[in-house]
Write a structure and sequence with these properties.
CATH class of chain A: Alpha Beta
Oligomer: heterodimer
CATH topology of chain A: Beta-Lactamase
Largest sheet of chain A: 5 strands, antiparallel
CATH class of chain B: Alpha Beta
CATH superfamily of chain B: Dynein light chain 2a, cytoplasmic
Strand order of the largest sheet of chain B: 2-1-5-4-3
Number of helices of chain B: 3
Strand content of chain A: 15-25%
Radius of gyration of chain B: 13 Å
Structural class of chain B: alpha+beta
CATH superfamily of chain A: Dynein light chain 2a, cytoplasmic
Number of domains of chain A: 1
Strand order of the largest sheet of chain A: 2-1-5-4-3
Number of strands of chain B: 5
CATH architecture of chain A: 2-Layer Sandwich
Number of domains of chain B: 1
Strand content of chain B: 25-35%
CATH topology of chain B: Beta-Lactamase
Order of helices and strands of chain A: HEEHEEEHH
Largest interface: A-B, 8 and 15 residues
Shape of chain B: globular
CATH architecture of chain B: 2-Layer Sandwich
Shape of chain A: globular
Protein backbone atom coordinates (compact mmCIF):
# COMPACT_ATOMS: atom_id res chain seq x y z
CA UNK A 1 0.00 0.00 0.00
CA UNK A 2 1.36 3.45 -0.84
CA UNK A 3 1.60 6.14 1.77
CA UNK A 4 -0.22 9.40 1.17
CA UNK A 5 3.11 11.13 0.45
CA UNK A 6 4.15 8.44 -2.07
CA UNK A 7 0.78 8.74 -3.74
CA UNK A 8 1.10 12.51 -4.04
CA UNK A 9 4.51 12.14 -5.70
CA UNK A 10 3.16 9.51 -8.07
CA UNK A 11 0.13 11.60 -9.02
CA UNK A 12 2.47 14.48 -9.76
CA UNK A 13 4.74 12.32 -11.92
CA UNK A 14 1.90 10.87 -13.98
CA UNK A 15 0.18 14.18 -14.75
CA UNK A 16 2.64 15.32 -17.42
CA UNK A 17 2.83 12.11 -19.49
CA UNK A 18 -0.95 11.71 -19.40
CA UNK A 19 -1.53 15.33 -20.43
CA UNK A 20 0.82 14.82 -23.36
CA UNK A 21 -0.98 11.60 -24.27
CA UNK A 22 -4.33 13.41 -24.40
CA UNK A 23 -2.81 16.21 -26.47
CA UNK A 24 -1.23 13.78 -28.96
CA UNK A 25 -4.23 11.50 -29.36
CA UNK A 26 -7.14 13.94 -28.90
CA UNK A 27 -9.01 11.40 -26.77
CA UNK A 28 -11.90 12.89 -24.81
CA UNK A 29 -10.73 11.56 -21.50
CA UNK A 30 -7.86 9.46 -20.20
CA UNK A 31 -7.33 8.09 -16.72
CA UNK A 32 -4.59 6.05 -15.13
CA UNK A 33 -5.55 3.74 -12.31
CA UNK A 34 -3.67 1.08 -10.41
CA UNK A 35 -4.73 -2.55 -10.33
CA UNK A 36 -6.77 -2.00 -7.16
CA UNK A 37 -8.84 0.69 -8.87
CA UNK A 38 -7.20 3.69 -7.27
CA UNK A 39 -7.35 6.71 -9.53
CA UNK A 40 -3.87 8.15 -10.07
CA UNK A 41 -4.32 10.65 -12.90
CA UNK A 42 -6.98 12.01 -15.18
CA UNK A 43 -6.95 14.38 -18.13
CA UNK A 44 -9.50 15.57 -20.64
CA UNK A 45 -13.22 16.13 -20.39
CA UNK A 46 -14.39 14.13 -17.41
CA UNK A 47 -17.80 15.79 -17.17
CA UNK A 48 -20.46 13.17 -17.71
CA UNK A 49 -18.30 10.36 -16.35
CA UNK A 50 -18.14 9.05 -12.80
CA UNK A 51 -14.39 8.83 -12.88
CA UNK A 52 -14.00 6.83 -9.68
CA UNK A 53 -16.48 4.28 -11.02
CA UNK A 54 -14.57 4.14 -14.30
CA UNK A 55 -11.40 3.50 -12.28
CA UNK A 56 -12.93 0.66 -10.26
CA UNK A 57 -14.47 -0.97 -13.29
CA UNK A 58 -11.21 -0.66 -15.21
CA UNK A 59 -9.48 -2.58 -12.41
CA UNK A 60 -12.19 -5.23 -12.55
CA UNK A 61 -11.87 -5.45 -16.35
CA UNK A 62 -8.10 -5.76 -15.96
CA UNK A 63 -8.54 -8.64 -13.51
CA UNK A 64 -11.03 -10.37 -15.83
CA UNK A 65 -8.92 -9.83 -18.95
CA UNK A 66 -5.82 -11.10 -17.15
CA UNK A 67 -7.64 -14.24 -16.03
CA UNK A 68 -8.93 -14.76 -19.58
CA UNK A 69 -5.46 -14.23 -21.03
CA UNK A 70 -4.09 -16.82 -18.60
CA UNK A 71 -6.81 -19.32 -19.43
CA UNK A 72 -6.34 -18.98 -23.17
CA UNK A 73 -2.57 -19.06 -22.99
CA UNK A 74 -2.28 -15.51 -24.28
CA UNK A 75 -0.34 -14.74 -21.08
CA UNK A 76 -0.57 -10.97 -20.95
CA UNK A 77 -3.18 -8.81 -22.62
CA UNK A 78 -2.06 -5.56 -24.22
CA UNK A 79 -5.18 -3.71 -25.35
CA UNK A 80 -8.90 -4.04 -24.81
CA UNK A 81 -11.01 -2.04 -27.25
CA UNK A 82 -14.75 -1.46 -26.85
CA UNK A 83 -16.51 0.07 -29.81
CA UNK A 84 -19.71 1.98 -29.06
CA UNK A 85 -22.04 3.77 -31.43
CA UNK A 86 -20.48 7.17 -30.84
CA UNK A 87 -17.58 6.51 -28.56
CA UNK A 88 -14.83 4.00 -28.13
CA UNK A 89 -12.91 2.93 -25.10
CA UNK A 90 -9.42 1.52 -24.95
CA UNK A 91 -7.92 -0.13 -21.89
CA UNK A 92 -4.21 -0.87 -21.76
CA UNK A 93 -2.26 -2.36 -18.85
CA UNK A 94 1.30 -1.34 -18.09
CA UNK A 95 3.66 -3.54 -16.12
CA UNK A 96 5.91 -0.99 -14.48
CA UNK A 97 7.95 -3.24 -12.24
CA UNK A 98 5.91 -2.32 -9.17
CA UNK A 99 2.16 -2.36 -9.52
CA UNK A 100 0.36 -2.67 -12.83
CA UNK A 101 -1.16 0.55 -14.10
CA UNK A 102 -4.19 0.63 -16.37
CA UNK A 103 -4.93 3.31 -18.92
CA UNK A 104 -8.55 4.01 -19.78
CA UNK A 105 -9.03 6.22 -22.82
CA UNK A 106 -12.42 7.31 -24.12
CA UNK A 107 -12.47 8.72 -27.61
CA UNK A 108 -14.72 9.51 -30.55
CA UNK A 109 -14.28 9.97 -34.29
CA UNK A 110 -12.00 12.95 -33.88
CA UNK A 111 -9.17 10.43 -33.58
CA UNK A 112 -8.67 6.78 -34.50
CA UNK A 113 -7.98 3.52 -32.75
CA UNK A 114 -4.60 3.32 -34.48
CA UNK A 115 -3.47 6.66 -33.06
CA UNK A 116 -4.84 5.92 -29.59
CA UNK A 117 -3.12 2.53 -29.55
CA UNK A 118 0.17 3.85 -30.90
CA UNK A 119 0.45 6.55 -28.26
CA UNK A 120 -0.78 4.20 -25.54
CA UNK A 121 2.25 2.06 -26.28
CA UNK A 122 4.48 5.13 -26.11
CA UNK A 123 2.89 6.20 -22.85
CA UNK A 124 3.70 2.75 -21.47
CA UNK A 125 7.34 3.20 -22.46
CA UNK A 126 7.43 6.56 -20.67
CA UNK A 127 5.84 5.14 -17.55
CA UNK A 128 8.35 2.31 -17.39
CA UNK A 129 11.09 4.94 -17.15
CA UNK A 130 9.64 6.43 -13.94
CA UNK A 131 11.74 4.97 -11.10
CA UNK A 132 9.05 5.65 -8.48
CA UNK A 133 6.75 3.18 -10.25
CA UNK A 134 9.24 0.36 -9.89
CA UNK A 135 9.16 0.47 -6.12
CA UNK A 136 6.31 0.07 -3.65
CA UNK A 137 2.65 -0.34 -4.11
CA UNK A 138 2.97 -3.79 -5.56
CA UNK A 139 -0.33 -5.62 -5.79
CA UNK A 140 1.20 -8.89 -6.83
CA UNK A 141 0.05 -10.46 -3.60
CA UNK A 142 -3.16 -12.23 -4.61
CA UNK A 143 -5.04 -11.86 -1.34
CA UNK A 144 -4.33 -8.14 -1.12
CA UNK A 145 -5.28 -7.67 -4.75
CA UNK A 146 -8.57 -9.44 -4.15
CA UNK A 147 -9.23 -7.38 -1.03
CA UNK A 148 -8.52 -4.11 -2.83
CA UNK A 149 -10.59 -5.13 -5.81
CA UNK A 150 -13.51 -6.01 -3.57
CA UNK A 151 -13.20 -2.60 -1.98
CA UNK A 152 -13.30 -0.98 -5.41
CA UNK A 153 -16.35 -2.95 -6.47
CA UNK A 154 -18.11 -2.03 -3.20
CA UNK A 155 -17.44 1.62 -3.87
CA UNK A 156 -19.16 1.24 -7.23
CA UNK A 157 -22.01 -1.04 -6.21
CA UNK A 158 -22.65 0.21 -2.68
CA UNK A 159 -24.59 -2.28 -0.57
CA UNK A 160 -25.47 -4.40 -3.59
CA UNK A 161 -21.94 -5.79 -3.87
CA UNK B 1 0.67 -15.62 -51.04
CA UNK B 2 -2.87 -16.45 -51.97
CA UNK B 3 -5.28 -13.79 -50.75
CA UNK B 4 -5.79 -10.46 -52.51
CA UNK B 5 -4.43 -8.42 -49.62
CA UNK B 6 -1.16 -10.28 -49.54
CA UNK B 7 -0.89 -10.17 -53.33
CA UNK B 8 -1.36 -6.40 -53.07
CA UNK B 9 1.48 -6.11 -50.58
CA UNK B 10 3.72 -8.28 -52.69
CA UNK B 11 3.25 -6.10 -55.77
CA UNK B 12 4.02 -2.94 -53.77
CA UNK B 13 7.11 -4.47 -52.19
CA UNK B 14 8.44 -5.44 -55.63
CA UNK B 15 8.97 -1.74 -56.41
CA UNK B 16 12.60 -0.75 -55.85
CA UNK B 17 13.15 1.17 -52.61
CA UNK B 18 9.88 0.27 -50.89
CA UNK B 19 10.67 -0.52 -47.26
CA UNK B 20 7.17 -1.19 -45.96
CA UNK B 21 3.73 -1.78 -47.41
CA UNK B 22 0.67 -1.75 -45.20
CA UNK B 23 -3.07 -2.06 -45.80
CA UNK B 24 -4.83 -0.06 -43.13
CA UNK B 25 -8.45 0.05 -42.00
CA UNK B 26 -9.29 3.62 -43.02
CA UNK B 27 -11.70 4.30 -40.14
CA UNK B 28 -9.74 2.71 -37.35
CA UNK B 29 -6.22 3.45 -38.54
CA UNK B 30 -5.05 -0.04 -37.66
CA UNK B 31 -3.10 -2.34 -39.97
CA UNK B 32 -4.95 -5.17 -41.71
CA UNK B 33 -1.85 -6.72 -43.28
CA UNK B 34 1.69 -5.45 -43.46
CA UNK B 35 5.21 -6.27 -44.47
CA UNK B 36 8.08 -4.09 -43.34
CA UNK B 37 11.86 -4.08 -43.29
CA UNK B 38 13.51 -4.20 -39.89
CA UNK B 39 13.81 -0.69 -38.53
CA UNK B 40 10.51 0.53 -39.98
CA UNK B 41 7.85 1.07 -37.33
CA UNK B 42 4.95 -0.18 -39.43
CA UNK B 43 2.33 0.32 -36.70
CA UNK B 44 3.31 3.96 -36.37
CA UNK B 45 3.42 4.42 -40.15
CA UNK B 46 -0.07 2.89 -40.40
CA UNK B 47 -1.64 4.97 -37.63
CA UNK B 48 0.01 8.26 -38.49
CA UNK B 49 -0.30 7.76 -42.25
CA UNK B 50 -4.03 7.09 -41.88
CA UNK B 51 -4.42 10.14 -39.65
CA UNK B 52 -2.52 12.33 -42.08
CA UNK B 53 -4.67 11.08 -44.92
CA UNK B 54 -7.87 11.67 -42.97
CA UNK B 55 -6.94 15.25 -42.18
CA UNK B 56 -5.71 15.95 -45.69
CA UNK B 57 -8.94 14.51 -47.08
CA UNK B 58 -10.90 16.92 -44.93
CA UNK B 59 -8.69 19.76 -46.08
CA UNK B 60 -9.19 18.79 -49.74
CA UNK B 61 -12.91 18.57 -49.20
CA UNK B 62 -13.07 22.01 -47.55
CA UNK B 63 -10.99 23.45 -50.36
CA UNK B 64 -13.46 22.08 -52.87
CA UNK B 65 -10.88 19.73 -54.36
CA UNK B 66 -13.12 16.68 -54.00
CA UNK B 67 -12.20 13.38 -52.44
CA UNK B 68 -8.55 12.71 -51.80
CA UNK B 69 -7.08 9.78 -53.69
CA UNK B 70 -3.34 9.85 -53.03
CA UNK B 71 -1.06 11.62 -50.63
CA UNK B 72 2.70 11.71 -50.88
CA UNK B 73 4.95 13.02 -48.13
CA UNK B 74 8.57 13.69 -49.01
CA UNK B 75 10.99 13.86 -46.10
CA UNK B 76 14.73 14.02 -45.74
CA UNK B 77 15.21 10.27 -45.32
CA UNK B 78 12.36 8.87 -47.31
CA UNK B 79 8.82 9.05 -48.60
CA UNK B 80 5.41 8.07 -47.38
CA UNK B 81 2.69 7.33 -49.87
CA UNK B 82 -0.93 6.84 -48.85
CA UNK B 83 -3.66 5.90 -51.31
CA UNK B 84 -7.36 5.31 -50.78
CA UNK B 85 -8.69 1.84 -51.66
CA UNK B 86 -12.33 1.72 -50.62
CA UNK B 87 -12.49 1.17 -46.87
CA UNK B 88 -8.76 0.58 -46.81
CA UNK B 89 -5.73 2.76 -47.16
CA UNK B 90 -2.53 1.68 -48.83
CA UNK B 91 0.46 3.00 -46.90
CA UNK B 92 3.93 2.62 -48.36
CA UNK B 93 7.20 3.73 -46.81
CA UNK B 94 9.96 4.22 -49.37
CA UNK B 95 13.65 5.13 -49.37
CA UNK B 96 14.74 8.52 -50.75
CA UNK B 97 15.92 6.91 -54.00
CA UNK B 98 12.88 4.66 -54.48
CA UNK B 99 11.13 4.43 -57.82
CA UNK B 100 8.32 6.75 -56.77
CA UNK B 101 6.65 7.01 -60.17
CA UNK B 102 6.41 3.23 -60.35
CA UNK B 103 5.17 3.11 -56.77
CA UNK B 104 2.40 5.62 -57.52
CA UNK B 105 1.28 3.61 -60.54
CA UNK B 106 1.39 0.37 -58.58
CA UNK B 107 -0.51 1.89 -55.64
CA UNK B 108 -3.19 3.12 -58.04
CA UNK B 109 -3.46 -0.31 -59.61
CA UNK B 110 -3.68 -2.02 -56.21
CA UNK B 111 -6.28 0.52 -55.04
CA UNK B 112 -8.38 -0.27 -58.10
CA UNK B 113 -8.17 -3.99 -57.47
CA UNK B 114 -9.13 -3.68 -53.79
CA UNK B 115 -11.82 -1.00 -53.96
Amino acid sequence: MRTRAELAVLVDLLRGPLREYVRETRVRMAVLVDASGQLLAQQGFSRGYEVTNVASLAAAAHAAASALADMTGARRWTHLHNEGRNQHMLLAPYATGGSDLILVAIFDRSTSLGIVRLFSDRLGERLREIPELRGGGSVRDASRFEHELEGGVRRVMGDHA
Amino acid sequence: MADPYERALESLLRVDGVRAAILVDADMGVPVVMEADAGVDADAAAALGAELFRRSARCADLAGAGSLRTLQLAAEDGHLLVAAAGGLLIVAVAAPDAQLAVLRVEAGRVAGSLA
